[in-house]
TrEMBL record:
Keywords: Membrane, Transmembrane, Transmembrane helix. This is Permease. The keyword Nucleus does not apply. Signal peptide: none annotated. The keyword Protein biosynthesis does not apply. The chain crosses the membrane at residues 288-312, 333-357, 377-400, 421-442, 462-485, 506-528, 719-752, 773-806, 826-846.
Amino acid sequence: MTMPWRAAPRAALSSPLTLIIAAVTALLACFLGTAAILQASAAGGAAVAYQSGLACPDYYGPVFSKDNVPVAVAPQVVDSVRRHAPAHGFGTPVTSRYTPYLFGTEFNGDPNYKVTIAHRDQAVPGHIELADGSVGAGLLLGTVVAKAEGIKAGVTPSIHGTPLPPVTGLYRDLADPAPRWWCSQQRNAVVSRLANDPLDSVMFAPDGKTFDDTVRTLGVPAIATLHMSFYEAPPKTVSEAEDLLERSKALIAEVKADLGARGLGDAIIGSVPFERSVTISNQAESNVLISILPLAAISILVGCAGIGTVALQWYQRRHPQLRLLSARGSAPGALGALAVAELGLPIVVGGAAGALLARLSLGVYGPPGELDDGALLQGSLVAAAILFVSLALLAGVITVRTHREFELGRVRSGRAKGVKLLAIFPWELVTAGVALLGWNRLVDYGKGSRVGNPLPQVDPLALTYPVFVVLTVGLLAARLAWLALHASHRARLWSRPALQMAIRRLASARAPVTGVLVIGTLAVGTLATGIGIARGQEEALHTKSAIFVGAETRVDTESVIGTGKVQLPPHLSGDTTIVGELTGTGSVVLVVDPRTFRRAATLGPLDGAEVERLLGQLSNPGTGVPAIRVGNDSAQKAALGAGLADARTIGELPMFPIIGTKAGYVISRESLSPAQLRAVPKWSVLSGAPLTQVTDALTSVGVATAVNRVTRESALDALPFYLVSWTFSFMALLGAVLGAVAVLSLLVAVEVRRRQNALAGALVLRMGMRPRALLASHLMELGALSGLAVVIGVACGISVAGLSVPRFDPATFLAPRSALPNPTPFALTVLAVGVLVVALAGWIAMRSVRTARTAELIRA
């Protein structure tokens, strides 16, 4: 009695379609289960990478810093950090030291200079650019002061008669903002020319000995700022970031204990600036995982249901053999093991292929982040658990069925009644209730980000709302289709035989038809929702930053630029414009140059042609100042302030760069007199060039920039937008997988009915129907099913996405609100895929007719 079990793998080849279905079902279930784990881990890695890009490159590890450190204490602090760092996996720290401002510094007999003596490890050479002279046993002076005051290399400065080391070279002052390597030293190493006297300068000592000798010579009692940090490689995963955080805290504790034993416990303050970023990255990974877990669980349950269906199909096909084995004494458990022996290998192979495919295709569907070391193991364990459950379910279904039928002798009437009860149960009411509950939870989504939390608070039930809406519509459509097919026998359309035959074929397979309709609708709707919400947040980030900044770069600057006293450098004039801003009247008044504003500003969702038309009318003559009215505030007053006449509205826009949707006016610089231009308190340069290029160009013409500079990349915290996009990209993945299941189900349904289609097709061809008409009949049948799923899925998915996108907006306080992107390309793509699938299924159906032998079909 061991032969059936021993020969089971070979016997499975007698039904290749069952093998394929079992393998593909396991593949999809394991793919989605593994993908959920990898998606969350990659999201954490992407969040770490994003936070690393925001932080200074020497802020990933520990930072030791303090102001007013006694000169005698500073070497002990530096020595303690250097000694203990290697034990915790850190290299040599980069030490920065700055003296207080030295007033009365004398160059060439002029004692009106104010300088700071500084030294930073590895700064010279490499991170300071020499413009003249050389690095020697002296100091380096910035070129701004040297050029303005005619100071040359070789000059020996002094302070109150005490000579300093000679100026051996001139270096180019660090730009504001500082280069990335100097990021953490912005406060000390960069002189803000707008806020400080133009005679201020930082003089760098090229080595520590020169700095120490200078401090000793001048008798400086304390170091104004002592700063020590480590240039570690940025962490790529959450686990790497957490390990770096733990080692940093351990080093800080050891240094504090060492200094405390010497009575210097408060000599330095240790901190880990990247700790907040680690917390945010960890939260991002958890948010994505919690968000997609319900979707992954639903998909895995669907996969398990598919395995159960495969078990029932196998039971029906092997029923005579199972009855015989049971009569000869085989237990139900042994018969269940026979099913596992026959179908277990394709299920395991399919599941393993699904887990491998999830890893290989992560770059296509997942966030652009590195995986944690344990993510692959966790994903593999999830896939193994799914396979174990699948095999147990396969054996359990066969065991229970054989026990009920062969040992208990129960008839199938009870099962038929149970199936009928399940069929008529209003499941759509249940799913609609869950969708309504999710919608109510969705109202509060994102509230956390508005109260200072960097990431929106996650409610998994709110995130499943779109899926349950689409599922409800799909179930409702399937129920209506079931009723219509049940009543289709009343149709009398024999004058159009192709259509009549298509209706009869649909009616004869109501269960598969409604199943494919539900899966197809759910697939298309979920795909539309996932893509719509994910892309909606990506476009929202793009448009919000465009409106907020007004251009790629915005730099506040001195009024000499706005009044025209100083002209913009020629190489910036092509994509740069100047805007002024007035407030105080209740409205924001933006002063623009109509000729250059359109080519430099980013307009977001605004119509460029309409904006250009209105800008061209700002010079029209008439009473009052011609202005573009911005916003929808009915109580908005026409007063402009600053001695200007009231506004004369020549057009309206719902929003405008920089102003957003606030009440405001846009006027032309040509409407203001020179005195009125000087009264504008704030002037900004909008440019399409990078920030460093803009600031360097302004510095080259002697114009200082303010500290509030902004670019589109840094204007907004993009992580909350990315988080929503990463979450719903998994929903789009689920829709794509369900779409593959729907297509496979349709093709399998056609292939299962191959003999029936061949017999019916051969007979009607013998009766005089043309092959073209028979093909049209099959295309009507398959097209009606696929078309219904596509139309309902697209309409429902786009509608749900349109309602959901604004509610998932993590920055509702910024205009414009998130909106659904153009759905036309998606709809056309799905329609094209549907046409191809219908054509393929019709070809399969017609192939069975063309290759059939009528005599053999009738004889069989």
